[in-house]
Protein backbone atom coordinates (compact mmCIF):
# COMPACT_ATOMS: atom_id res chain seq x y z
CA UNK A 1 0.00 0.00 0.00
CA UNK A 2 2.84 2.40 0.82
CA UNK A 3 4.46 1.65 -2.54
CA UNK A 4 1.19 2.52 -4.33
CA UNK A 5 1.03 5.87 -2.53
CA UNK A 6 4.61 6.56 -3.52
CA UNK A 7 3.82 5.92 -7.19
CA UNK A 8 0.70 8.07 -6.95
CA UNK A 9 2.72 10.86 -5.32
CA UNK A 10 5.39 10.55 -8.02
CA UNK A 11 2.80 10.79 -10.81
CA UNK A 12 1.11 13.73 -9.09
CA UNK A 13 4.45 15.53 -8.82
CA UNK A 14 5.11 14.86 -12.51
CA UNK A 15 1.72 16.30 -13.40
CA UNK A 16 2.43 19.42 -11.36
CA UNK A 17 5.82 19.76 -13.07
CA UNK A 18 4.13 19.30 -16.47
CA UNK A 19 1.59 22.02 -15.74
CA UNK A 20 4.24 24.43 -14.41
CA UNK A 21 6.42 23.82 -17.47
CA UNK A 22 3.46 24.43 -19.80
CA UNK A 23 2.72 27.73 -18.02
CA UNK A 24 6.36 28.81 -18.30
CA UNK A 25 6.41 27.92 -22.00
CA UNK A 26 3.28 30.03 -22.54
CA UNK A 27 4.89 33.01 -20.76
CA UNK A 28 8.12 32.68 -22.74
CA UNK A 29 6.20 32.44 -26.03
CA UNK A 30 4.20 35.55 -25.07
CA UNK A 31 7.44 37.45 -24.37
CA UNK A 32 8.83 36.51 -27.79
CA UNK A 33 5.53 37.46 -29.49
CA UNK A 34 5.53 40.83 -27.73
CA UNK A 35 9.22 41.72 -27.98
CA UNK A 36 10.16 39.88 -31.18
CA UNK A 37 12.75 37.19 -31.82
CA UNK A 38 15.61 39.68 -31.63
CA UNK A 39 16.42 42.25 -28.94
CA UNK A 40 19.20 44.81 -28.45
CA UNK A 41 22.27 43.36 -26.78
CA UNK A 42 24.34 45.00 -24.03
CA UNK A 43 26.59 46.69 -26.61
CA UNK A 44 23.73 47.82 -28.83
CA UNK A 45 24.06 44.89 -31.22
CA UNK A 46 21.07 42.76 -32.21
CA UNK A 47 20.89 39.35 -30.51
CA UNK A 48 18.41 36.48 -30.36
CA UNK A 49 15.82 36.89 -27.65
CA UNK A 50 17.03 35.04 -24.52
CA UNK A 51 13.58 33.48 -24.18
CA UNK A 52 14.25 31.44 -27.33
CA UNK A 53 16.98 29.45 -25.58
CA UNK A 54 14.79 29.09 -22.50
CA UNK A 55 11.94 27.85 -24.73
CA UNK A 56 14.15 25.16 -26.24
CA UNK A 57 15.18 23.99 -22.77
CA UNK A 58 11.61 24.03 -21.45
CA UNK A 59 10.39 22.02 -24.43
CA UNK A 60 13.04 19.35 -23.78
CA UNK A 61 12.02 19.23 -20.12
CA UNK A 62 8.35 18.92 -21.09
CA UNK A 63 9.15 16.06 -23.49
CA UNK A 64 11.03 14.23 -20.73
CA UNK A 65 8.14 14.69 -18.29
CA UNK A 66 5.57 13.48 -20.80
CA UNK A 67 7.77 10.48 -21.58
CA UNK A 68 7.87 9.57 -17.88
CA UNK A 69 4.10 9.81 -17.66
CA UNK A 70 3.67 7.39 -20.60
CA UNK A 71 3.86 3.83 -19.24
CA UNK A 72 4.59 2.48 -22.74
CA UNK A 73 7.71 4.60 -23.20
CA UNK A 74 11.02 2.84 -23.39
CA UNK A 75 14.25 4.30 -22.10
CA UNK A 76 17.09 4.97 -24.51
CA UNK A 77 19.23 2.25 -22.92
CA UNK A 78 16.42 -0.29 -23.32
CA UNK A 79 16.04 0.64 -27.00
CA UNK A 80 19.79 0.36 -27.53
CA UNK A 81 19.95 -2.99 -25.74
CA UNK A 82 17.09 -4.34 -27.88
CA UNK A 83 18.73 -3.07 -31.11
CA UNK A 84 22.06 -4.71 -30.23
CA UNK A 85 20.31 -8.00 -29.43
CA UNK A 86 18.45 -7.91 -32.75
CA UNK A 87 21.70 -7.24 -34.67
CA UNK A 88 23.44 -10.03 -32.77
CA UNK A 89 20.62 -12.49 -33.42
CA UNK A 90 20.78 -11.70 -37.16
CA UNK A 91 24.55 -12.14 -37.43
CA UNK A 92 25.18 -15.21 -35.29
CA UNK A 93 24.77 -18.56 -36.96
CA UNK A 94 24.84 -22.14 -35.84
CA UNK A 95 27.96 -24.30 -36.48
CA UNK A 96 25.99 -26.22 -39.12
CA UNK A 97 25.61 -23.01 -41.15
CA UNK A 98 29.33 -22.32 -41.23
CA UNK A 99 31.41 -23.24 -44.27
CA UNK A 100 34.54 -25.23 -43.59
CA UNK A 101 37.58 -24.12 -45.58
CA UNK A 102 40.44 -26.56 -45.20
CA UNK A 103 43.88 -25.13 -44.55
CA UNK A 104 45.84 -25.74 -47.68
CA UNK A 105 49.06 -24.02 -48.49
CA UNK A 106 48.59 -21.44 -51.23
CA UNK A 107 44.85 -20.84 -50.95
CA UNK A 108 45.30 -17.83 -48.65
CA UNK A 109 43.43 -19.49 -45.77
CA UNK A 110 46.14 -21.32 -44.00
CA UNK A 111 49.77 -21.97 -43.45
Can you characterise this structure?
The chain is mainly α and 111 residues long. The protein has a domain at 2-74. The chain is built from three helices and two strands. The chain has helices at 2-35, 50-69, 76-91; strands at residues 38-40, 46-48. A two-stranded antiparallel ribbon has the order 1-2.
Question: Which helices and strands appear, and what pairs or packs with what?
Answer:
Layout: H1 2-35, E1 38-40, E2 46-48, H2 50-69, H3 76-91
Antiparallel strand pairs: 1-2
Helix pairs in contact: 1-2
Backbone shape = flat
* Global mean pLDDT: 80
By DSSP, the count of extended strands is 2
The share of residues in extended strands comes to 5-15%
- Helix coverage percent of residues? 55-70%
List the secondary-structure elements in sequence, H or E.
HEEHH
Please give the count of helices: 3
The biggest beta sheet reads:
2 strands, antiparallel
Q: What's the arrangement of strands in the largest beta sheet?
A: 1-2
CA radius of gyration: 28 Å
Amino acid sequence: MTEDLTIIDFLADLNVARMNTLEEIAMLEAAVRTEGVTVPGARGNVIAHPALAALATHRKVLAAIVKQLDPRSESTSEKARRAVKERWDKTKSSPADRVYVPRVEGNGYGA
